[in-house]
Write a structure and sequence with these properties.
With 162 residues, the chain is α/β, with parallel strands linked by helices. The chain is 40% helix and 22% strand. The protein has 2 domains: 97 residues, 2-Layer Sandwich (Alpha-Beta Plaits), CATH 3.30.70; 57 residues, MutS, DNA mismatch repair protein, domain I (3-Layer(aba) Sandwich), CATH 3.40.1170.
Amino acid sequence: MYLRIHIENFRLFAALRASREKRRGAVVLVDESGCIAELNSAAQAKQLLPGMTMARALSRCSGMQVVHADAQAERAARRILWNAAWQITPQIELGERDALGTATLELVRPDFEQLTTQVQQLLQRLRRCGLPARAGVAATADWAGFAATAAERFQFKMLPTP
C-alpha cells in the first residue's frame, strides 16, 4: 500500500509561509519570466490562470498580491513535509520538479484504523504550518496519487484494494 501526500501550489504556500505578512484575497506566485506560476483559490475565482502575464492578470484583478519564489522557503517547507511523513514511516520519496510538494510513502501491512488517525493528525500538522495538504491511500503509488488529487483539501481518501 502507498500513501501520497499532496500540497497543491506548494511553491506559493512555501513563500506565503515564509512571509511575515498575512495575505488575503487574490495571491499569485510569479516565476522568473514574470508570468503567473501558481495562484490561490481567490485568484482562480478572478479567472487568473498559470502562464498569464502580469499585465493581463492586473487587467483582470487590480488588487492581486504578488509573491516571488523563495528557494529557502521551499527547502524549509520540504523539511516540514519530510518530518511530518516520517511520523508514519521512514520509507519516503519526496517529489521533485513537477511533483514538488508531494511525498509518497510505502506502507507495509498498514493498520487502516491507526493509519486514518495518523494521516488526519499529519494533515492537521501541515495545515498549522501553512501547508494545505490532502492525502490518498491505494495499492499502487500512482493510484495513491490519484486518490490524493481527488481528496478535498485537508482530507484523506482511501481507494479500496481489489
